[in-house]
Amino acid sequence: MGLFDFGKKQKKQEVADEPLRNYPQMLTAKLLFTDKPAINKARITSELQTAHPGVHSPDSESALLYFFPDIKVQFEDGIIAAQCTIFLPNAGDEKAEVAPEALQQNWHWAKADETAAACRYEFLVSDFMSRTLDYKVRLTLFMDFLVAVTRVVGPQAEYSVAAQKLIAPDDLVDSWTNPDQRPLHGLVNVRLFNISNGSSGEILMDTVGLHLLGLPDFQIRFANLDEGVVGQALWNYAYYVYEHGDIITDGSTIQGLTPQSKWKCERQVAAVAPERVVIHLQPS
């Protein structure tokens, strides 16, 4: 039996409703530093050329834009090369800023809060003009760029803003370059929230970050289930959607924590910010 059960036929409507869905958003990460970073454009270009031999950047030292001619982006009025960039803060505004919610969901890195608190400087890494790319091609482009910049400039922490997640730089590089690649580690987080106005011991868990690729995130509200096991299940569901795309429809069922359990899937607006479409799982 597969992870998802699509054998159940849904009642057809005379006019199909447009399903709730997410739309691609800019991919970004902040690099955090204890000391003001020095950026060597030539070294970043050289690092990138391992995976993208044709990559180039304008000669101007003030332009931190990189062009990838091997990846074409189609628009109505033409085709351009995919781009990534480094956004430097204005002088006097370099102070590293991490949102409070990003300090609350770092189950993977015990020293995340301590490390971020020691950082005084930041800059932003982003893709640019690339939202129409296939989401896997786009993530590969962004992560190749982020890893290359990380290797060259040596930050103390990576801050995945939309995923509300702090990541150790060595962990980020390993997640992308290790043969057992974890492609979503730098973009997606699994979060846990205690529900104060719910039943005793009730918890909400969700994923956040898939929405940036135009894919649905997941959420589940439960009590009396093992949080660690549920968290691993959410990661499994995230990777399934990443592999197969946005194919889960309302009323489909997903294998729960045992082969015998079936959880119903329903598309909803997320219960917890950021606003996005999620697959709400209903434990049976």
Polypeptide structure, described:
Residues 1-15 have low confidence and may be disordered. This protein has helices spanning 41-48, 112-117, 135-153, 169-177, 227-244; strands spanning 4-5, 28-33, 65-75, 78-87, 121-128, 157-160, 165-167, 189-194, 203-208, 217-222, 253-255, 262-269, 277-282. Strand 11 and strand 12 form a beta hairpin. The protein has 5 helices and 13 strands. It has 284 residues and is α+β, with helices and mostly antiparallel strands. It has 2 domains: 28-177, no CATH class; 188-282, no CATH class.
Please render the helix and strand layout as text:
Layout: E1 4-5, E2 28-33, H1 41-48, E3 65-75, E4 78-87, H2 112-117, E5 121-128, H3 135-153, E6 157-160, E7 165-167, H4 169-177, E8 189-194, E9 203-208, E10 217-222, H5 227-244, E11 253-255, E12 262-269, E13 277-282
Parallel strand pairs: 10-13
Antiparallel strand pairs: 1-11, 2-5, 2-6, 3-4, 4-5, 6-7, 8-9, 9-10, 11-12, 12-13
Tally the structural domains: 2
N-to-C span: 18 Å
Tell me the number of strands: 13
Number of helices: 5
Topology as a string of helices (H) and strands (E)? EEHEEHEHEEHEEEHEEE
Radius of gyration: 20 Å
Work out the oligomeric state of the chains in this entry: single chain
**Which regions are unreliable across 5 or more consecutive residues at pLDDT < 50?**
1-15
Q: What's the shape? A: globular
Task: Tell me the strand order in the biggest sheet.
Answer: 1-11-12-13-10-9-8
Helix and strand content put the structural class at alpha+beta
Beta-strand content estimate = 25-35%
Instruction: Report on the biggest sheet.
Output: 7 strands, mixed
In round numbers, the mean pLDDT is: 90
Helix share of residues?
Answer: 10-25%
